[in-house]
Write a structure and sequence with these properties.
Blueprint: H1 8-15, H2 23-41, H3 50-65, E1 80-87, H4 96-105, H5 109-121, E2 126-135, E3 140-151, E4 162-176, E5 181-192, E6 208-210, H6 212-220, E7 227-234, E8 238-243, E9 248-253
Antiparallel strand pairs: 1-2, 1-9, 2-3, 3-4, 4-5, 5-6, 5-7, 7-8, 8-9
Helix pairs in contact: 2-3, 4-5
Length: about 250
């Protein structure tokens, strides 16, 4: 029989053939799994300890370093509905309304955020599901934040007199102005009373739309605030974004 020559380099290459998934893909999958678990354990970051916040910040930084999508703010992947799963700030700050208010108020913005958090958090109230919808092909952003509000008399006990829930829906213009940055101007905020039986007398407010861009123009004496949202990690199922002040928001595709 005739001998067949074997190329030792080819044999070595066959033995050392890489796996189907690249190291960066494997790393991203592991980082996302750990981040989602941490988010679930800390109430989307709302109840996070200092150690959990530090761990989340590290995971986010590592995720951004392996971002698989070039020019994420300009990618078609950025469009769609995204549910907030973690933030290192107040959950309601996922809404462009609060971005604009914070920019307009400047250094007093933190006081406003704290006051709003206190008001919505009394007697078991708080923030429910938060969804941010992006359609940058048509320059649109919509935020739908479910808020549970309660009213009670502290001196008479901790049970609320009544509680109900509704949605605060803010819509605005959103333009991708660079590879990672989206410029946003909030236009309107609509109040939707989802629990109409709790306070029937207030049903007239249901679906009331407030032209917040016009209101902010009048208050500020000029153009309404333009704010910036950076898209720093993006794949088919997760997005990491940050505001100008560094506040972090992690979303999963709905």
């Amino acid at each position: 029989a005739r001998a067949v020559a074997v190329d030792p380099d080819a044999a070595n290459n066959a033995v050392a053939a890489p796996s189907s998934a690249s190291p960066s893909v494997d790393a991203a999958a592991s980082l996302k799994k750990r981040l989602v678990a941490l988010a679930a354990a800390s109430g989307r970051g709302l109840d996070a300890t200092a150690a959990q916040k530090a761990a989340a910040a590290s995971l986010v930084a590592d995720l951004i370093a392996v971002n698989p999508t070039p020019d994420p703010a300009m990618s078609a992947k950025v469009n769609g509905d995204w549910e907030l799963v973690y933030s290192d700030t107040y959950l309601f700050r996922s809404s462009p309304f609060f971005w604009a208010v914070g920019k307009m108020m400047g250094e007093t913005g933190d006081f406003f955020y704290g006051a709003h958090d206190h008001q919505t958090g009394m007697f078991g109230g708080g923030v429910g599901r938060v969804v941010q919808s992006l359609d940058l092909e048509n320059n649109r952003i919509v935020s739908d934040c479910i808020v549970k509000a309660s009213l009670g008399v502290p001196l008479l006990g901790f049970a609320p007199i009544f509680s109900g829930f509704g949605s605060v829906i803010t819509a605005g213009r959103a333009v991708a102005e660079s590879e990672t940055r989206v410029a946003v101007v909030a236009e309107t905020t609509t109040i939707r009373q989802d629990d109409k039986e709790v306070i029937p007398a207030l049903n007239f407010l249901n679906n009331t739309t407030v032209p917040i861009e016009d209101a902010m123009r009048q208050i500020g004496g000029g153009a309404a605030p333009e704010v910036f949202l950076d898209v720093l990690y993006l794949d088919d199922e997760m997005r990491v974004s940050k505001l100008e002040d560094g506040s972090t928001f992690v979303y999963q595709r709905c």
